[in-house]
Amino acid sequence: MSLGSNGNLPNTGEKATTYTKKDFVSSQTVRWCPGCGDYAILDAVQKSFATLGIPREKIVVVSGIGCSSRFPYYMDTYGFHTIHGRAPAFATGLKVSRPDLSVWVITGDGDGLSIGGNHLMHAMRRNLDIKILLFNNRIYGLTKGQYSPTSEIGKKTKTSPLGSVDRPLYPTSIALAAEATFVARSVDVYGAHLRDVIHRAAQHRGSSFVEILQNCNIFNDGAWADLADRKTRDNHKLDLEHRKPMIFGENRTKGIKLGEGLQPTVVDLASNGVSEDDLILHDENTSNPALAYMLSRMSPPDFPTPLGVFRAIEEETYEAAVHRQIEDARGNSTPADLEALLKSGDIWEVS
Questions:
Q1: Pairing relation of β-strands 78-81 and 102-108?
Q2: Which residues contact 11 (CB under 8 A, 6 or more apart)?
Q3: CB-neighbour burial class of residue 107 (10 A; exposed 0-12, middle 13-18, buried 19+)
Q4: Residue 306 · residue 240 · CB < 8 Å
Q5: What's the pLDDT score for residue 2?
Q6: Cis link prior to 149 (omega < 30° from 0)?
Q7: Tens digits of per-residue pLDDT, 152-164?
Q8: Domain of 138, in residue numbers
Q9: What total of structural domains would you count in the chain?
Q10: Which of 47, 113, 250, 254 is the least buried, fewest Cβ under 10 Å from its Cβ?
Q11: How many CB atoms lie within 10 A of CB 145?
Q12: Is the pLDDT higher at 2 or at 212?
């Protein structure tokens, strides 16, 4: 987080604090299945928090129910382990009452997009200044392997033995449709990339949503295998860079061009007549989310998976609007007198 000229944190007046990862490691034993992607995410969050300069007592981690929701126990900050899908509602009350706090919501594709979908959507469309990290492993892990809202069509699980017929949700598309002002995506094993995305989400003022593609090696191993494999992942991912053409591939010989009907098309830069000038330029700062939404719908096998920041715009936050409204109301009325209120109307004295 950038500091003011006096070395203070922006808008807080507090001196920046120097931390290391160890300062955010709690005394609790981390209990996830060996090899779970949650370990990598926890490491990235703790390392990222150490770079923010925010006092630990000013950070609150709020979770719902699921494997990811154990997060508050493993972070040496304040935290709430709440009820299924309702973490955004708790975070809303906390942020409105204490705008000075850095509030983080940890959720999963089941907790956040099934029972909690309504709460998640409204927290984002209000532009509440909270940071939402959604772990997407395309499965219900805590309850032992049922298909989730993001599971692909045909997914065979304990609750879909013949294959799921449900159409999957795209978390990033949901966030953009709900008008979140910061939307990004990363992968659990992309340490540096994930830390950078988390850091940018922390710096943003407004609703920040980060989808983290995460592996559940017990119930859905290899869900993002193409992105995790160092040997092949360059051919399967599109790194979004602001104001730069959309190029990907091991040798950066492929790109994304806008084709007929305003549809994205994969093109070969080695072909005659195709150059970088023909490719789509990524613009994360545009107020029109159409380009970002188009990117959020791109998925294998026809397209690479876009990673990075889809959208980052500045608008008034929900809690700022609420407190401004309160101050305006107070300015048009006489000061409250609690004693006068208690003695108004029909009162009597018991002797």
A1: unpaired
A2: none
A3: buried
A4: yes
A5: 34
A6: no
A7: 999 999 999 999 9
A8: 21-223+316-331
A9: 1
A10: 250
A11: 16
A12: 212
